[in-house]
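Memo to structure team: turn this sequence into structure tokens by end of day. - J.P.
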Amino acid sequence: MDRLDHLEHLDKHLVDELAQVARETVRDELREQTRKQRRTAMLYAASGAVALYAGAALALAVGLALALGLPDWAAALITAVILGAVAYVLRGAARPGGSRPEAGQGAGAGVGAGVGGTAPVAAPPAGPGTPYPPMPPVAPGATGTPEPGAAPAQAGTDPEQPHHRA
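Reply from structure team:
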């Protein structure tokens, strides 16, 4: 039994040593990855700062060009309106796809009035975050609705009567 106890001690020592080597390897790998990501993030930040100054210089050039034929205040106002329009378009492009009207909705469905001036029927949003499935317009199995997979009933015909072709 003493030999088995000695082997158990060696196994435990080997497992501890392997765990320590694995931890050091993972730590070194993560350190290298974060170093690369930090460098990339700094380059993106510098790029953004330079782009900000380039945009300011462009806005100044547009304002000065407009000031050749307009009063200074009008040139500055037109430049501000142009920059505001560009900011609005960029904000709209940055919105996630879920805030735009869906294919089943009309373009004015979210405005507050539907066709004929009536308010649209309030329905929960249908998306990946919806906690329950969307409701069908008619309850399944209600009178007058065909069963799933069945042919649609013809108007003015009795489904119980035999069908005759002329």
